[in-house]
Amino acid sequence: DIPPLNNTFSETPSDGIYEYGIHVIDNASNCITEGAKDCDTGLDPGDGITRTVFSPIQVTVDKTPPSGTISIDSGAAYTTSTSVTLTLTCDIVGDCIQMRFRNDSPTFNGNEQIHDFASSTSWDLSTGDGTKTAYVQYKDAASNWSGSFAGTITLDTQNPSVSFDSPAANSWQNSDFTVQYDATDANIESC
After folding, report:
1. How many CB atoms lie within 10 A of CB 135?
2. What Cα–Cα distance (Å) separates residue 88 from each residue in 1, 63, 70, 136?
3. What is the DSSP string of 54-94?
4. Backbone angles phi, psi at 158, to 5 degrees
5. pLDDT (0 to 100) of residue 12
6. b vs e for 17-39, b when ≥16 Cβ sit within 10 Å of the residue's Cβ?
7. How far is C-alpha 58 from the chain's CA centre?
8. Please, is 13 exposed, middle or buried when counting C-beta atoms within 10 Å of its C-beta (0-12, 13-18, 19+)?
9. What is the CA radius of gyration of the chain?
10. Is 160:189 a contact under the CB 8 Å cutoff?
11. Rounded mean pLDDT of 23-40?
12. Contact (CB, 8 A) for 71 and 87
């Protein structure tokens, strides 16, 4: 048995598509080459000699992580429910294939569930009223994970409370009067 000839070479290419082919000739002038080209000249021989041929390999180099965005409930400022819809964009040259999410922390630990990429998905915010942040990372076909992208919304599940100061409840009035009341809520917009 003749051991195989194992050769390697290293490349440090920038992002792009590269094609690699090889020509191998043994001592008896038998050759293997990419396509139907002569091993010596690289030209189509036209001599009717059968040669072993193979297709060159194509390699896409992508070292650039994806970028993207996330918005919660179409960019709304408030929600009354922890169940929201995330709208997602992933901007890359190749395909964005996967994504993962976290609540309230941009640091991903690798234990998050991975989802196939979609432009929108349902998501549950963490409980407790206040500002909520959902984070996403995107993965491209070259297995580059993006940094974290954040969307924020305020969760407000409490109704405002109102108390009347005057006039007294169920009172009768025989002249002009002023209604005085107190309204309280963490996020009062108008009364």
Report:
1. 20
2. 57, 22, 5, 9
3. EPPEEEEE--PPPEEEEEEGGG-SEESSSEEEEEEEEE-SS
4. -100, 135
5. 80
6. eeeeeeeeeeeeeebebbeebbe
7. 26
8. exposed
9. 33
10. no
11. 65
12. yes
In terms of C-beta density within 10 A (0-12 exposed, 13-18 middle, 19 or more buried), how is residue 164 classed?
A: exposed
97: left (phi over 0), alpha (psi -120 to 50) or beta: alpha
First to last CA, the chain: 91
Assign 1 a pLDDT band (cuts: 50, 70, 90): low
Tokens of 132: 């909520």
Q: Which two tokens stand for residue 4?
A: 């195989």
Task: Specify the 3-state DSSP secondary structure of 137.
Answer: strand
pLDDT-above-90 percentage for the chain: 43
Tokens of residue 21, six digits: 């082919």
Sign for the pseudo-dihedral over CA of 110, 122, 136, 61: positive
What is the amino acid identity at position 69?
A: T
Tell me the C-alpha distance between 176 and 2, whole Å: 111
Instruction: Give burial (CB, 10 Å; 0-12/13-18/19+) of 136.
Output: buried
Both tokens of 86, joined, read 């995330």
